[in-house]
Structure formats: structure tokens, C-alpha cells
Amino acid sequence: MKVAVIQMDIVYGNPQANFEHITSKIREACSDQTDVIVLPELWTTGYDLEMLDQIGDPNGEKTIEFISSLAISYHVNIVAGSVAVRKEKDVFNTMLVFDREGNVHKEYSKVHLFRLMNEEKYLKAGNDDGHFTIDDIPAAGFICYDIRFPEWIRKHALEGAKVLFVPAEWPKPRTEHWRNLLITRAIENQCYVVACNRVGSDPDNVFGGHSMIINPWGEILSEADEDETTIYANIQIEELNEFRKRIPIYEDRRTDLYE
Ligand SMILES: O=C(O)CCC(=O)C(=O)O
């Protein structure tokens, strides 16, 4: 399964400009037999939190129509990062996953809101799990700050997720946290990690890029720098099974001592 991670800059508070920008990026990323495209967190609006009750997408409809048509055109799965989705009075930070036929296969709303960037003042936390499949491979999605909660990721790994998708807007001053947390989540859960950060800046933050695709042994298969770029790697589930046989952590867990 070939994955393409689109590390992009985001035009603050301007969904139309971001829709236009992403169209050419997706076309380019699909030029060579790509199976899955991954986008960053809040890629339609950026962190324009005060405006989300106006520029957030009602029920995600506009994003769904737009991404669905690209998924159909290129016959590709799209983990469409996350977008601000308005539902009645609330706004959620929601990951939308599309299959090759353009169906919305999963909606996952970020469960851990990040106080340092005032998310809890403007967003409502989700309460559902992040499980989905991509071409029948069990996967799960997490959004940015979620990766600081190993118990949340572990729950999904124990329930069968093998590829962990992480869209983010992770600020540059904590790039080493981002890199180390992602590598650790891959090693400790023996999962692939496919992580997409944004680059550029908004009025409050500079974002660090370093999107990464990591194998279950913790090896970085591909890593971006701090510019707009698309990175690619192949995910091989047979390889994951080999790693899990070599060090069988799932068999060696002491469930008599802990869950
Ligand atoms: O945990 C962090 O340092 C960054 C998290 C973040 O930026 C977010 O969840 O949007």
C-alpha cells in the first residue's frame, strides 16, 4: 500500500483558497499509483478558532462533496486530515476518511483538546474511537495532541489497528516532541505511523513540518523537512507481522497485572 503524505501550508481562515491549493497537490500525489493520500489537521481553515462558528463546514458537507469527487477521479483512499465541522451549536475537529469510491468511511473527532492553543474554548471534543480500514487493512486515526496519550493509542492497537494516521498542526518549538512521540508510538505498538504536519505560520504559531512515515520497528521510511512537500512510502503488512513475531509484545503482556 503506497501512502502519500501532503505536507502543506494553510491559508488562514480561507477555505476556498485551501480547497484550490489541495486540488493540485492531490493530483500531483496521485500521478504514480498512490493508494492513500493523507492531509494535515484543520487544513481548510487553519487555527482561525474565533471564526470557526462562521467558516466551519456545516456537517462537513462542502468538504465531503469536494474530497469525494477527488477520491473518485483518482480512485484513491483519502485520509482527509481534519476539518472544522459545525453541528448545530458545536464545532468539532473532525477527521474524514474516504474510500476509493468517494464514500465517507469514517468520521473521527479529536478527543483530546489542546488547551495551550485554546481549543477547549472553541471546539467540542469527540467521544468516539478512531478505527477504520483502508483497503481492508485495519487502521486508526488520531489528531495531533492525541498522540500524547499512549493509553488511547494502545487501546486501538490492542483492538487490531495496524496503521496509525496522525494529521496535525504541530508547532515548531516542539518538533522534537513530535518526532519522538511518533517514533515511540510506532515501536511500542508495533504499528506503522503515518503522520502529516503542516508548515508555515499563522498569527500565533510557526509550524514545524517533519511529516513522517515510520515502520513498526521504529525506522523512518520517509521524513519531510520544513517546506511544502509530499512524502511517500510503502506499507507492507507482512513486514509488520514479521516484526511482531520477532519481539512478541502482544503475547508477552501480563494481563494478570494490567489491562
Ligand atoms: O502537544 C503539542 O505539543 C501540540 C498539540 C497541538 O498543537 C494540537 O493538538 O493542535
TrEMBL record:
GO terms for molecular function: hydrolase activity. The keyword Hydrolase applies. InterPro entries: C-N_Hydrolase, C-N_Hydrolase_sf. It comes from the Bacteria. Keywords: Hydrolase. Gene3D superfamilies: Carbon-nitrogen hydrolase. CDD domains: nitrilase_5. Residues 1-237 form the CN hydrolase domain. Belongs to the carbon-nitrogen hydrolase superfamily. NIT1/NIT2 family. This is Carbon-nitrogen family hydrolase.
